[in-house]
Amino acid sequence: MANVHGIAKGAAPLPDAPLQGARIAVTRAGDRGAPLAALLAAAGATVHELPLTRIEALEGTALEEGLTAVAFDWIVLTSVNAVTHLAQAIARVGGASRHGRARLAVVGSTTAAAVEAEGWGEPAVRPEQAHAEGLLDALASRGDVAGRQVLYPCAAGARDVLPDGLRALGAEVQVVPVYRSAPDPDGQARVRALVAASVLDLVTVAAPSAVDALQDAVPPEHAGRLPVACIGPVTARAARMAGFPVAIESTASTTEGFARAIIATWPVHAMSRAGNSVRPRLP
Q1: Last residue in a domain, options 126, 157, 180
Q2: Does residue 16 have a pLDDT over 80?
């Protein structure tokens, strides 16, 4: 059964709860979804934790082979999952000392925190714009990328923006898919049931893969009437292409920033549900 967060039965409503009455689905899994669900529930919402995707490691030893064969100058990381897989591969090949000299470039504060938690120190590059284009711009502004060996462990099907852009800057880039985001059939079924029962006001999506899973779960005739809250322009673009109305597009990559965007926008969204398109961009 899905986790549902809300005000305890018999308890008085939270004073001035900005999300009072809102019914929101959080589609991130486990540790990534629970903090967002808790923040939205604390603001008065009834929150359904319904993971739409799950992370699956890819078979093979390409990452270990790359770490053994090349002393990389840069390692580019765009997700916590990439950090986790890299740490496991380094531990398996015993290459911590060899690759400890590599500079790290990351997307987002959450990825940066995961890097520091592994004991790798503060990343050399972490742009304010938490997306691939922002990271590429930050690296392009430096003079130490051309001719360098760059490792990019990533998700299967990741966009080519970073590797293509880095190669255009003169870098030698090794792209190694190490995991994939697969649909979670159980979460999809639960979302489908809630949509059919008309008991969802908003669905949060944090990546294009979540949009794809939501699109597969929801009948086409419902997609145009199911508002979504997105992290970043890439996810928002995917949602619009899939036919979902984007009610909230947060430019913040953190859980707290995403929650603030939803809390700040909900009154406007609630008033516009009759038919106006509301697509604010919030920090």
Answers
A1: 180
A2: no
